[in-house]
Amino acid sequence: MKKVLAVFGTRPEVLDLFDIVPEYDLDLMRSQQTLTDITSRILNGVGKIYDTAQPDVGLVHGDTTTTLAASLAAFYRHLAVGHVEAGLRTGDTWSPWHEELNRRLTDAVSAWHFAPTEQARQNLLNEGASADRIVLAGNSVIDALLEPAERILSDLPNFFLTTTQEYLPFIFLMSRAYLVITDSGGVQEEAPALGKPVLVTRETTERPEAVAAGTARLVGTDIGRIVSAASELLDDEYAYERMAFSTNPYSDGHACERIISALRRKSMSSPPGCRVSHQSRASTLPRPLRRLLLRQFPVEAHEPSRAAAEDIIVPEFVGVEATIPSPTPSVVTVDDIGDTDLRSA
Questions:
Q1: Which contacts of 276-283 are long-range, i.e. CB under 8 A and separated by 24 or more positions?
Q2: ∠ at Cα 178 (177, 184), nearest 5°?
Q3: Neighbours of 311 (CB within 10 A)
Q4: By CB atoms within 10 Å of each CB, which of 88, 166, 284, 289 scores lowest?
């Protein structure tokens, strides 16, 4: 298959980044031109390219006027149109104007729809597109981000690109690192506990304690600042040790003990927003309590507790209600995916 690339002038500098040389450059961009002007020029210009190159498919991308006009030029010649980034919808023809109409009309004349997401695919199906003409392809902009990064970084002998790591392998890798460069909030807390200086590639942080304590430093996203800060830590042993051995402001490893201790105190039994019953009215977890991972909500155990003391009813986080016996209550935590993890205190 021969690929023919025509450039219309929207973002030609992108081609230089990928070392792409176009076969045709229509040079259509003019000052003070109207949508009618540019549509007319594209219809005529790309139409001539279609006539000369005789392609099998006219491949267009996105939702610009160029996209629509190039699609129409192909359609007028009975040429199959493939639309990359098909199916995006706001539901309002006037917002964004005029992109919403451009993508709707482009999809209407397209033979192939390359949808970036399942939602985009469903939009096309709802509008009557044939399922066998829709390809759930993902978004090519991610390819554009990752491909040059991989090409550039893979040439560095001491730079390793990895997939997303699970928690324990990630902690191991962090423990073996000399320093950490990150924009993660959690890593700003974890790395200092391992004695690793942290350079935060942000202008602000919701964890200012780390910056104040000297375990982390804000370096923003400017390449020069990042390189300068990293070089200082690599070359200046004193600067490195000053950050590595600063006191971690995020506790001493006994936070869970303090939380459990607070939950056991009578003063914590009825904070605002919690329902407290002084006599157990619900089934509670049997003792000894084993670690359970519960995915069915609401949570209810099936064996009554022998505890005669009051029960603590934990607030309803994401629809979870759990009844916990005291004076030896269990601890209920709700993670990001909505599971409830009950652990014996």
A1: 276/310, 276/311, 276/312, 276/313, 277/310, 277/311, 277/313, 278/310, 279/310, 280/304, 280/305, 280/307, 280/310, 280/311, 280/323, 280/325, 281/311, 282/311, 282/323, 283/323
A2: 65
A3: 22
A4: 166
The Cα–Cα gap between 226 and 245 comes to 21
Q: Which residue has the tokens 């005669």?
A: 308
Beta carbons of 29 and 83 less than 8 angstroms apart: no
Helices (H), the chain: 13-17, 35-53, 65-76, 99-109, 118-126, 140-153, 167-176, 185-193, 208-213, 223-235, 237-244, 255-264
8 Å CB contact between 329 and 288? no
Strand 80-84 and strand 57-61: pairing?
Answer: parallel
Distance of CA 62 to the CA centre of its chain: 21
CA distance 80 to 57: 5
* Per-residue pLDDT tens digits for 188-237: 999 999 999 999 999 999 999 999 999 999 999 999 999 999 999 999 99
Euclidean distance between CA atoms 302 and 153, whole angstroms: 56
Phi and psi at 184, nearest 5°, equal -75, 140
| pLDDT confidence band for 273 (50 / 70 / 90) | low
CB 258 within 8 A of CB 222: no
pLDDT for the residue 288: 37
